[in-house]
Design goal:
11 strands, two-stranded antiparallel ribbon, Carbamate kinase, single chain, about 240 residues, alpha/beta
């Protein structure tokens, strides 16, 4: 197989927000499918080979989601902590796949669990970037009632990421739900203010506010289409760009 060439990165440092569902295989009944995780690692290694520094925040919805637990009798705080632990399980799976692909990586978690991951320490994370390592941030913000979108926006702000790339199952931000409304319009570029005025669902309100206040562009794109993240990192038009 001929390796796909990737254009030089437009960005110095990116943060990729990946949902936990991206790791699962519903048909096989697997919360974490090793083949899928290996494929993700291969794609991210191609991006890393362009010289861009990569941080990654992964969700835990493939294992447990706090809001769903609350509906079934688990109090919200406990459920959210369970969800944070689920993100660390996913982070460890990705770490293993990265290392097997020849891409050095480290897992940092907002909830200390020193046997399996480093605690989140900003200066240590920045040092990992300098050494060419991918840093996987797990454990959310370390606090209940905050989503992994908010964790992604927070970490992107802390590490001074040039862009936050939100991986989704749709092609970008639409005027309405494209599944329910086939006439929905895909926005290629929209300002923060326009997104607020039109009530566009980019990220949750807290996450969106953090990005807006810290002037971090957001690219919302379909991660499952081959080549999308590679094109996005190269600065080509992919999905929806939300910016000043």
């Amino acid at each position: 197989m001929v390796a796909r060439r990737v254009a030089k990165s437009k960005y110095r440092r990116i943060l990729l927000k990946l949902s936990g569902e991206a790791l699962q295989n519903r048909e096989k009944g697997l919360s974490i499918d090793p083949e899928i995780v290996t494929g993700i690692a291969t794609r991210i290694k191609r991006v890393a080979d362009t010289g861009v520094q990569i941080a990654l925040v992964v969700g835990g919805g493939n294992i447990f989601r706090g809001t769903l637990g609350e509906a079934r009798g688990i109090d919200r705080t406990t459920g959210d902590y369970m969800g944070m632990l689920a993100t660390t399980i996913n982070g460890l799976a990705l770490h293993n796949a990265f290392e097997r692909a020849g891409l050095p990586a480290r897992v940092q978690t907002a909830i200390e669990m020193n046997k399996v991951a480093e605690p989140f320490i900003l200066k240590r994370a920045l040092r990992h970037f300098e050494k060419g390592r991918v840093v996987i941030f797990t454990g959310g913000t370390g606090n209940p009632f905050f989503s992994t979108d908010t964790a992604a926006a927070l970490r992107a702000s802390e590490i001074s990421a040039d862009v936050l790339m939100k991986a989704t199952k749709v092609d970008g931000v639409y005027s309405a739900d494209p599944v329910a409304d086939p006439t929905a319009t895909l926005y290629r570029r929209v300002s923060y203010r326009e997104a607020l005025n039109r009530s566009l669902r980019v990220m949750d309100a807290t996450a969106f506010s953090l990005c807006m206040e810290n002037h971090i562009p957001i690219i919302v794109f379909n991660f499952f289409k081959p080549g999308t993240i590679e094109r996005a990192v190269a600065g080509r038009e992919v999905g929806t760009l939300v910016t000043d």
